[in-house]
Write a structure and sequence with these properties.
Chain C: This is Protein ISD11. Chain B: Scaffold protein for the de novo synthesis of iron-sulfur (Fe-S) clusters within mitochondria, which is required for maturation of both mitochondrial and cytoplasmic [2Fe-2S] and [4Fe-4S] proteins. Chain B: Belongs to the NifU family. The complex is a heterotrimer. Chain A is α/β, with parallel strands linked by helices. Chain A folds into two domains: 70-100 and 360-483, Aspartate Aminotransferase, domain 1 (Alpha-Beta Complex), CATH 3.90.1150; 111-358, Type I PLP-dependent aspartate aminotransferase-like (Major domain) (Aspartate Aminotransferase, domain 2), CATH 3.40.640.10. Chain A has helices spanning 2-32, 85-88, 111-122, 134-154, 167-183, 202-212, 231-237, 260-269, 343-380, 407-413, 434-438, 443-447, 460-479, 482-488; strands spanning 39-40, 45-46, 54-56, 99-100, 161-164, 193-197, 217-221, 242-246, 273-277, 296-300, 311-315, 384-386, 397-402, 417-418, 449-453. Chain A starts with a helix and ends in a 13-residue tail after the last helix. In chain B, a hairpin with a 6-residue loop joins β2 (61-69) and β3 (76-84). Chain B has one domain (27-152): Alpha-Beta Complex (Sufe protein. Chain: A). Chain B is elongated and about 75 Å long. The radius of gyration of chain C is 15 Å and the shape is elongated. In chain C, 26% of the residues are buried. The chains are: A alpha/beta, B alpha+beta, C mainly alpha. The interface between A and B is large, with 59 and 54 residues.
């Protein structure tokens, strides 16, 4: 009797559990396909977070312009929709933030990278160099794991990766470190010649320039009109006094890819160290340090959808590259770069590198497709030219010149697209880009060049908007330009005597 | 780590960096720029049309200003401009066309670049745009007068 | 909770078309909650590709299918975490977006 009751109860309990399980699973199923009123899928808003959400409204104006701001809406002429007014007039049905096409300057942080980093901003806050407790051990393990992920992309050994605060510091460490080693009296032969190109990043040029005061000779190789380095000329310039050749992988302004393998072979045969600033190239073009015989390589995290403030320098161990550190301290990073490593930044960097490998095929396909569409449509406009070699290029960086349109007015016309005319470092000083001048472009053409950066997160819709905007606005500006009118009439502008100031 | 990067950035900045050379535009400049008045060309060969072409592409500013003068009254009937230059240059020339329409040649000859600069609130770095606009209108008047003189002599 | 659902749905160690499509649906619903336009469009593209691959693997009875499925269920948790963070910080919409 009792047994039956127990069994009944047991069965009842089991069936209840089963039904509860079914109820639970169907509830969770419902949760996945939530139709609750809290979530508004159409407007991408989850109302459950309304009481904790922070809303930031962004301003289109530069801080210096904010003082001059008057209400543009009140002006009567604003009612007329000219091609350019779209750049300024706020369409109430559409958003206001510009389209981001400046990935060579920096990239947005991939959410999957942020996910990995959050651990280190919340609970895992230990100093990785504290080797007496688990807080240190756990962060140290993760940092070493990140080092391995970064090394795998270029076929290097994890021990050869030195973390720095960014590609600028890596470039400085490479150039000044080698210079310090060879310039000091402790080494046997004194080598004081460094070769670089005149299209390098500003930090490489400045670092080399600063070495001139210490008795170094710098050769700035000229590039041809397509931006490529001439190997014969490089070979001619290498002497027994040369200690370093520094040539970047992918140019940040025109997107030209140098022949790293050939340069590496040449430098190895002449026993000269080869440094390459691969901030823009890492993860985007296939790089193998063994294959290409690269001895030093600068890497930047915020160009590969990672966090800002961290970078790395690859320093070859076999055959050993002798470097002097430029930062002294506790001897971290093989005594080449002392200082506490930041676990969130390093782990974010590692995850970003891992994702570059995982997503590479899909990214290259997507970026190439968008880039081809953009370039084809832009070159359809009259008197436009693509800067840089059309074959040896990275498709994510497109630099186009628009003749007979003044550069500043063109940028002003494209206010609703975040673009750059040349590199971010030099854009503040309204000088034409030195890279374009090095290609032999005349100053006017260099002034009216625009650099478009296409990345993983750029969509086809954004590219379509940009193509339409540029076609309309360039046409508008050319209608306003007397030089265009003269060109159309067949007058050669060089024959006119300008009154000029 | 951060402080070294910022200090090295400051030390490595090119010597030619001048903070004042940033672009800042007044609302009126933007207005003239997005909706320029009187853009176009007049028939250069017409006896009543004076053309002023000033500036140089190397400097980054070229203005072409054309005025059509009524030969009986000496009043400017129509004016058209075309400019190759920055936003302030376009705004200056557009504003000048507004200023001169319907005025007599003598009045127009008195236009000063300071009037243009004041109206558009041009920053000091862009004052040369207003000077160029003044030069353009003076050149147009000169061209018209020389054409008239040539026909009178005939 | 996740493992309970998994075990409730797949009582045998076999995938079913229904479980794949329900995972796909939950991905698409969650990705809609990214306030950032670029992330939203990117993840839609990426996971469309992933599910095409998974469906192909399932159709050809590839042994990788079950691992792929489990990897995707784990990545869904990541997407949910990141949409929550995205929801917490809202910015103005892009020019190409409808308000």
């Amino acid at each position: 009797m009792l047994g039956k009751a127990i069994i009944k109860k047991a069965i009842g309990f089991e069936s209840a559990k089963l039904s509860l399980r079914i109820v639970c699973s169907s509830n969770t199923l419902k949760a996945y396909q939530s139709t609750s009123s809290d979530v508004d899928y159409k407007h991408h808003i989850d109302h459950r977070f309304d009481d904790s959400r922070m809303v930031t409204h962004t301003k289109l104006q530069k801080p210096s312009e904010a003082n001059n701001e008057e209400n543009l809406e009140s002006s009567p002429s604003q009612n007329i929709a000219t091609a350019l007014s779209h750049a300024y007039r706020a369409d109430p049905t559409r958003g206001t933030r510009p389209i981001y096409l400046d990935v060579q300057a920096t990239t947005p942080l991939d959410p999957r990278v942020l996910d990995k980093m959050m651990n280190y901003y919340t609970g895992l806050y230990g100093n990785p160099h504290s080797n007496t407790h688990s807080y240190g051990w756990e962060t140290n393990t993760e940092i070493e794991h990140a080092r391995e992920q970064i090394a795998n992309i270029i076929g290097a050994n994890p021990k050869e990766i030195i973390f720095t605060s960014g590609a600028t510091e890596s470039n400085n460490l490479a150039i000044k470190g080698i210079a310090k080693f060879y310039g000091s009296s402790s080494s046997g032969i004194k080598k004081n010649h460094i070769i670089t190109t005149n299209t390098e990043h500003k930090c490489v040029l400045e670092a080399s320039k600063s070495l001139k005061d210490e008795g170094f000779e710098i050769t700035y190789l000229k590039v041809d009109s397509n931006g490529l380095v001439d190997l014969k000329e490089l070979e001619n310039h290498i002497s027994e006094k040369t200690c370093l050749v520094s040539i970047m992988g992918v140019n940040n302004e025109i997107g030209v890819v140098q022949n790293l393998k050939a340069i590496g072979e040449l430098c190895r045969s002449k026993k000269v160290y080869f440094h390459s600033d691969c901030a823009q190239a890492y993860g985007k073009i296939p790089i193998n340090v063994e294959d290409m015989k690269i001895d030093l390589m600068s890497i930047s995290s915020h160009k590969i959808y990672g966090p800002k403030g961290i970078g790395a320098l690859y320093v070859r161990r076999r055959p050993r590259v002798r470097l002097h550190p430029i930062i002294s301290g506790g001897g971290q990073e093989r005594n080449l770069r002392s200082g506490t490593l930041s676990p969130p930044l390093v782990v974010g960097f590692g995850e970003a590198a891992r994702l570059m490998a995982v997503e590479r095929e899909a990214d290259i396909e997507h970026i190439t497709k968008l880039s081809k569409k953009l370039v084809d449509s832009l070159l359809k406009i009259e008197e436009t030219s693509l800067n840089g070699d059309p074959n040896h290029r990275y498709h994510g960086c497109v630099n186009v010149s628009f003749a007979f349109v003044e550069g500043e007015s063109l940028l002003m016309a494209l206010r609703d697209v975040a673009l750059s005319s040349g590199s971010a470092c030099t854009s503040a000083s309204l000088e034409p880009s030195y890279v374009l001048s090095a290609l032999g472009k005349d100053e006017a053409l260099a002034h009216s060049s625009i650099r478009f950066g296409i990345g993983r997160f750029t969509t086809e819709e954004e590219i379509d908007y940009v193509i339409k905007a540029i076609t309309e606005r360039v046409e508008f500006l050319r209608e306003m330009s007397p030089l265009w009118e003269l060109h159309k009439e067949g007058v050669d502008l060089n024959t006119i005597e300008w009154s000029g100031h | 780590m951060l402080s070294l990067r910022t200090t090295s950035r400051i030390l490595l900045k090119p010597k030619t960096y001048i903070p004042a050379l940033t672009r800042s535009y007044h609302a009126k400049v933007i207005d003239h720029y997005t909706n320029p008045r009187n853009v176009g060309s007049l028939n250069q060969k017409d006896i009543n049309v004076g053309t002023g072409l000033v500036g140089a592409p190397a400097c980054g500013d070229v203005m072409k200003l054309q005025i059509k003068v009524n030969e009986d009254t000496g009043v400017i009937e129509d004016v058209k401009f075309k400019t190759f230059g920055c936003g302030s240059a376009i705004a200056s020339s557009s504003y000048v066309t507004e200023m001169v329409k319907g005025k007599s040649l003598d009045d127009v000859g008195k236009i000063k670049n300071t009037d243009i600069a004041k109206e558009l609130s041009l920053p000091p770095i862009k004052l040369h745009c207003s000077m160029l606009a003044e030069d353009a209108i003076k050149a147009a008047i000169k061209d018209y007068k020389s054409k008239r003189k040539a026909t009178v002599l005939h | 909770m996740n493992t309970a659902v998994k075990s409730a749905l797949n009582t045998s160690k076999q995938l079913s078309q229904q479980s794949i499509s329900s995972l796909n649906a939950s991905y698409m619903n969650n990705i809609q909650l990214f306030t950032n336009y670029n992330f939203r469009e990117y993840f839609k593209r990426k996971y469309q590709r992933e599910f095409e691959k998974l469906n192909k693997e399932f159709a050809t009875n590839d042994s990788n299918a079950i691992n792929h499925y489990e990897q995707l269920t784990e990545e869904l948790r990541l997407i949910k975490r990141q949409t929550i963070i995205n929801q917490l910080y809202k910015f103005d919409e892009l020019i190409v977006e409808q308000k």
